[in-house]
TrEMBL record:
Pfam families: AMP-binding (PF00501). InterPro entries: AMP-binding_CS, AMP-dep_synth/lig_dom, ANL_N_sf. The lineage of its organism: Eukaryota, Viridiplantae, Streptophyta, Embryophyta, Tracheophyta. PROSITE patterns: AMP_BINDING. Residues 75-434 form the AMP-dependent synthetase/ligase domain. Belongs to the ATP-dependent AMP-binding enzyme family. This is AMP-dependent synthetase/ligase domain-containing protein.
């Protein structure tokens, strides 16, 4: 049985087929561009302040410029490997990457591109562990008018070659730890290669605001709303992975929606351990870039001016320890105390097991610390109710469940404030409407279609 989801991102209207599966309590949503419905606001509306500059809704470029202002630039954007990086340092590296790309003779891909960014829509592959360099690589690509294509080294080589050829990648950016492998693969795909410059603790550009607004990087001309900005590949459950194209406008609308709905602010500190390249599930390691880690726990927090702390791998001991350090029971709250944590059900099950293995004193300290976090969320697979109830018993947090897909990122969520119903993913976000008109169709899941196109497969259905 299916229904219809309609939603609008800053004037981009979408219609989705919603399939209610008898085998899974989540809903499968696929975009269909052939119908543009009259837009009405859904329930679950928000009266939270808008993340905008002046009266104009914030675009990605405006967010970048806002991050370069003196009042924000010195704030910590990323923590990784025991190092901290400010927004200014991140943007300085992004500008260096933009210059590097703009000075190279890269094959232009004009499909779906308007305006005259230096790269003209060229696809730029990015290979890096969750780090400041990964973020700088994406921003530098966008500042140059390119399309970022995050790549997962966890792909088997044949699958990695498929993604690179399918997305028509013409240049690969990689950190040094993957440099030798990616240079070899880039050569086989006739793509150019360069290492990502490390994000430095010193600024190469003394005045980021002037450079971004009027200087050598014509970012406003590169970040046209309707231009493609990001290609994220599906996991390939029903065939080879397919590239999902997101525009600057849709990314901007999505991160604003998430930041508003979950009240992300510049005082938030995120503990990020959801792989940007791989995704941990109960039974396997899925070889894909996952929007949960990329949008919910990285782009939306950075949009709000939050701090994102990367953990290289999931560690039960480290997470409980990090929370105890943030909120010592007999001491002052740490300056870098974690406020938001988002994970998948398996992580919470493992954290419960770790808690149960502690002695009573350690349990008391750990439970107290976890209770102090502002928000804990779960997604990407169904949260077993016994796990949800046990977690609430320990931490007093009723986990906020939400639902999304690679094709449209997030669409449905339990409320930040108010009752959350176990076993459900909540109601539509503001700007999302779910029709109550249901019709019976084939049991086959409908093929994916985007408003613009699936990379390499225009108008497929």
């Amino acid at each position: 049985m299916t229904g219809i989801i309609t939603y609008s991102f800053k004037g981009l209207n979408y219609v989705s087929l919603l399939r209610l599966s008898a085998f899974h309590r989540y809903r499968y949503c696929y975009l269909n561009p052939f119908v543009t419905p009259p837009f009405t606001n859904a329930s679950f509306s928000s009266s939270l302040p808008s993340h905008s500059l002046g009266s104009k809704p914030a675009t990605l470029m405006e967010v970048v410029k806002a991050a370069s202002r003196p009042s924000v630039a010195g704030s910590i954007a990323i923590r990784a490997d025991q190092k901290s990086y400010t927004y200014s340092q991140l943007l300085s590296c992004a500008c260096n990457i933009s210059r590097l790309l703009s000075s190279t003779n890269i094959k232009i891909n004009n499909k779906g591109v308007s305006g005259h960014g230096n790269l003209g829509g060229a696809r730029i592959g990015i290979v890096a562990k969750p780090s400041a360099e990964f973020v700088a690589g994406m921003l530098g690509t966008w500042l140059s008018g390119g399309v970022a294509v995050p790549l997962a080294l966890s792909y088997p080589e044949a699958e990695l070659l498929h993604v690179m050829n399918d997305s028509d990648i013409s240049f690969v950016l990689s950190t040094e730890d993957y440099g030798e492998t990616m240079q070899s693969i880039a050569t086989r795909c006739a793509a150019q290669f360069s290492l990502i410059p490390p994000v430095s603790s010193t600024l190469s550009s003394p005045n980021m605001t002037d450079e971004l607004q009027t200087g050598e990087i014509e970012a406003d001309g590169s970040l046209i709303d309707e231009n493609p900005a990001l290609i994220v590949y599906t996991s390939g459950t029903t065939g080879k992975p397919k590239g999902v194209v997101h525009t600057h406008k849709s990314i901007s609308a999505q991160v604003k929606m998430l930041a508003d709905a979950w009240e992300y602010t510049s005082t938030d500190q995120f503990l990020h351990l959801l792989g940007l390249r791989i995704f941990f599930t109960l039974i396997s390691l899925t070889r894909t870039i996952h929007v949960h880690g990329l949008f919910n726990a990285l782009l939306a927090p950075l949009y709000a001016g939050s701090t994102v702390e990367f953990i290289p791998k999931f560690s039960v001991r480290h997470i409980w320890q990090r929370w105890r350090e943030s909120y010592p029971k007999n001491g002052a709250k740490a300056d870098d105390a974690i406020t938001v944590f988002t994970g998948v059900p398996t992580m919470y099950a493992r954290l419960i097991q770790g808690y149960q293995a502690m002695d009573p004193e350690q349990q008391a300290l750990s439970a107290y610390a976890a209770q102090q976090l502002r928000l804990m969320m779960s997604g990407s697979s169904a949260l077993p109710q016994p796990v949800m109830h046990e977690w609430e018993t320990i931490t007093r947090h009723c986990l906020l469940e939400r639902y999304g897909m690679t094709e449209f990122v997030m669409a449905i969520s339990n409320p930040l404030r108010g009752a959350r119903k176990a076993g459900t993913v909540g109601k539509p976000f503001p700007g999302v409407q779910v029709s109550s008109d249901l019709l019976v169709v084939s049991d086959l899941i409908v093929s994916v279609v985007l408003q613009r196109d699936i990379q390499g497969l225009p108008n497929v259905i």
